[in-house]
Amino acid sequence: MASEIIVDHQEKAYAILQADAEKILKLIKVQMDNLTMPQCPLYEEVLDTQMFGLSREIDFAVRLGLIDVKDGKAILDKLERELSVLHDASIRK
Question: Which tens digits make up the pLDDT trace of 21-33?
Answer without folding.
Answer: 999 999 888 877 7
